């Protein structure tokens, strides 16, 4: 840890001796009213300030040069101002915002095309979610927060250890690519544990793209991607704190500090600490309902100012977590033994990422990231020890030629993986260089076309080519129609920590030469705004329909032979198709509604037999209804989600549990008081209906009374036999799960920023 801080301090002294710097400050108003929550961008420096209730903003230490300021507020026209900054000067500006007559959502996005553009101008549909949205239902990590996003579902994969991944449009976690500041930080092994340690206080916004994006981002961007964009040190409060606790005994703390270091650097430090140490067994099966956790995450981000006014940013994060779940009387003295069952996971993780803009006239960026993930786990008496290292570098060149807005790029990814399971006899090392090009053509302001392609070479799979195309039409009334077609690919790593794989010693059988999984996607979306009444009442409707076809899916087969793990490409195909709609309604009286619904059909077809994919709902809905009472300085937020039935993994053909889950809903309510300067006090109730997946079931965990299978009798084929003590022929299995087994609870918290 100390070496890491020394490295950051070293970077902080590299760029000294700048010319005297200036200040740009101002106020944003609409009529005579100060505009809170307006985003003011300073370009091309890519700095951002968000106005408080007084409408004020300020950029400090601006080096001399030519800049453009852009004021952005949903429901209002963007305001652009060019300014020439001279040495040691102060500039005062005022932005007068005018309600929009066309677009409502004008956030800046980058994920769709790797370029900062307004959301309405993006060729690729990008959904944007700000911290204000996630604060409507506060959570301790990004994994839980994403449940509020339509078409995105956090999937819990184990009733005991509560690990999970993110599903987009019904596709499993490995098909979702998670980025931090555009870099592939969360992938491979860390998709299971890495998402729970990203401090919410450091998030500037979350961008979601549904559908393949491999032509820009490469492997794993098969079904969709989530880009978590962190705050810049210049934009963050000098100090912020957010602390809350729940009636279950959970305590979460987010701290943030930003400061200037010398004349050439700005630092953002964020710390997240979460603790839950109160074993609870509401369903009386002898096992913890919620995994106990002790987690800390430390994040640092440095922005360095250069004479050329070019960007240089470096960030690093350290994450450590100690979690366990199991029988209520388990303690660390039983770790790895067969007396009392527990699943104990120690995770230690380092991350480094950065962006360096080359000192040339052209817009050229070099981005890099490195992750080191070390996991020490035991599942009962079975150890799982794994190490993963991923290094990534990428160079992009952004160039305009007339109507053609081009992006050229070259990338190199290296991955090392090793574990102690039979699936990995020797350490796996993968090197994958790639090049890509993208051309965005604007014909007349109404019609735009995007063409892109990527070529990658994998040392195991050989050549991989992924093209994509997009068309965008914007009417005179501001309606936007987008048609996207693209391909995705995923190079599969044969690592596993599946409970079935860790039961006994199995031979690994690879059938044929495994080919990369591929997807082919078509997506049609439509955006429409309506304006009514006086004072900026707005309704925005965004609908989309998609069809995604998958080939070469690789699924480990544990069932054919109990002594083997068989890997092969699916002898068939998989399909994800459906439609979704998002409705945002803003009333001038303080009422806001965000509503979403998704209908989908996800299936696999093998040997001409079609089957609904496991753990995929046919419909889902999300909502966030907010109302502000100015005279009380009070915000009221009512949020919730609803999911249709899912096909669940049964433990045997005699398993008495239903094959499909019931439709369920999780609902929450929160009150936030803002009557104190710089302080917010909030509280409420989570899971108002007290829903848990264990309700109405004979049991949730198979074999909970015999977790080491000591009383199970097995037949010659290795399968469990039905006996008087085991009438359903079950072995211990915690995999019949699709959501957290945590019931109703209250919460109370306080936020402070300075």
Number of strand elements: 42
The backbone outline, from C-alpha atoms, is globular
Radius of gyration: 26 Å
From the 3D coordinates, which CATH architecture of the largest domain would you assign? Beta Barrel
**Poorly predicted runs:** 1-19, 101-105
The structural class is mainly beta
- The percentage helix is under 10%
Q: At the fourth CATH level, what is the homologous superfamily of the largest domain?
A: TonB-dependent receptor, beta-barrel domain
Number of H/I helices: 5
CATH secondary-structure class of the largest domain: Mainly Beta
* Largest sheet data: 22 strands, antiparallel, barrel
Provide the residue-averaged pLDDT. 85
List the topology elements:
Blueprint: H1 2-12, E1 22-30, E2 33-34, E3 39-43, E4 47-50, E5 56-62, E6 65-72, E7 79-85, E8 90-96, E9 108-109, E10 117-118, E11 127-129, H2 131-134, H3 142-145, E12 152-156, E13 164-168, E14 176-180, E15 183-186, H4 190-193, E16 203-210, H5 214-217, E17 224-230, E18 239-246, E19 251-261, E20 265-276, E21 292-304, E22 312-326, E23 342-357, E24 363-379, E25 382-401, E26 404-419, E27 428-442, E28 447-458, E29 462-474, E30 480-490, E31 507-510, E32 517-532, E33 537-551, E34 564-567, E35 572-586, E36 591-606, E37 609-612, E38 619-629, E39 634-643, E40 664-676, E41 679-686, E42 745-753
Parallel strand pairs: 1-8, 14-17, 31-34
Antiparallel strand pairs: 1-2, 1-5, 3-4, 3-6, 6-7, 9-10, 11-16, 12-13, 14-15, 16-17, 18-19, 18-42, 19-20, 20-21, 21-22, 22-23, 23-24, 24-25, 25-26, 26-27, 27-28, 28-29, 29-30, 30-32, 32-33, 33-35, 35-36, 36-37, 36-38, 38-39, 39-40, 40-41, 41-42
